[in-house]
Amino acid sequence: MPTKSARKTVLVVPLDWGLGHATRDIPIIHELLNAGCNVVIAAEGKHAALLSQEFPQLTILPLPGYRIQYAQKGWFFGPKIIQQIPQIIKSIKYEQQWLQQVVKEHQIDAVISDNRFGLYHRDIPTVIISHQLLIKTPFGGIIETLLQKINYSYIRKYGACWIPDYAGSNNLSGVLGHPKTLPPNTKYLGCLSRFENKPDVPKKYDLLVLISGPEPQRSNLEKMVLDQVAALPISALIVSGKPGTPETRQVTDRIQQVNHLNAKELNEAMLGADMVLSRSGYTTLMDLVKLNKKAILVPTPGQSEQEYLGKFLMKKGFFFNVNQSDFRLGKALEDIKTFPFKSFEHEEDMEQYKQVVRDFATSL
Fold first, then answer.
1. Are residues 104 and 239 in the same domain?
2. Per residue in 323-333, pLDDT tens?
3. Residue 326 and residue 213 share a domain
4. Cβ burial 165-188 (10 Å sphere, 16+ → b, else e)
5. Average pLDDT, stretch 84-97?
6. Which of 51, 86, 89, 171 is the most exposed place for a label (fewest CB within 10 A)?
7. Is residue 335 a contact partner of residue 327, using CB atoms and an 8 Å limit?
8. pTM of this structure
C-alpha cells in the first residue's frame, strides 16, 4: 500500500455546462498549488482538453459530465432541460458512487466541486461552488422556488458553499447569488478570473468576439457574426471556443478567426481590444470586470440565467445587452457609442478568492 504523502490532495471537478466552469476553476487550481497541495482534476471532452493544456503536469481522471442537450430554438430551452432531469439525477448518483472509489484509490483529502451535485463525502471536506443559488427558469414563480429547494438540499450535503461574487449591493449575479436566504456555511469569493490586468497594452483589435456555450447556439452566433463582420470597417479577432481543435484562418485582411486561445493569449487579446462581444455567461462576466473591459452581451437564447444577467447588468450600466433575435453587429456598434458605460468598482477585491482558498488548504 502506498505511503500517504504529507501534501494534501484536492480533487477539483467542473460542471460540463459550457467552458466557464472549467476556466473559472483555473485560478483556484493555481492557488491550491501555491498552497502546497496536490491537485487531481476530473473532467471529459473539451473541458479535459482545456485543463490539460493549462495544467499538463496534473492528473486528469475521466468522469462523464451531465451531457445536457440543448434545443435549437431558444423557447424550447427550458422544456428541453426539464425533460432531461431524470438523466441528471442518474448522473448525480453515478458521480457519488464514483467519488467513493476515487477517494480510496487516489487518497483524496478534499473535494472542490464546481456546481456538480454528487461530489460530497462524509469523511473528507467538500466544497461546492455556485453563483446560482436561485435558478432562473422561463417559468418563474413556483418552479423556481421548487428548484431552489432541490438545489439547497444538495448544497447542504457539502461542508461549504463558495459563491463567486461580492456580498454587497455592488455585485455581478444579482438575485442569483443573493437570494433572501443563503445556505449554511456560505462564503463569497469575490471575482474569480484567471486573467491579470496589465497597463499600457497596445490596441490590436477594434472588436474581440468570444463565441462560447453549448451547441447548437454556439454555432448559431458564430455564423451570425461571420455573416456580418466582413462588411464592417473594423479590425476583429473571433475566438470560436473550440479547444482541442487548433485552427486559425484569415477571414479578411482585417479579421482573423481562431478556434481557441490559451489563458495567456486570451488575456492579451482582451486587453488589446477596444470592445468585446460575448455571451453573458457568468465566467466571461467575471473576466470582463477583472480587466475592466466594455462589452456587448448576447445571451444564449432561452438560457434564463444569461438573459437575466444581461438585463440586470445593462440596467446597472456595466455592459450593453442585446437579444440574439435582434442582433445586428453594425447597429450594436453604433448603439454603444452613446451607451453610458460604468466601471465595476471592485479593483481592490479582485484577489479576494485567494485567501478563501488558502484558508481551506491550511485547514486540511
1. no
2. 999 999 999 99
3. yes
4. bbeeeebbbbebbbeeebbeeebb
5. 85
6. 86
7. no
8. 0.90
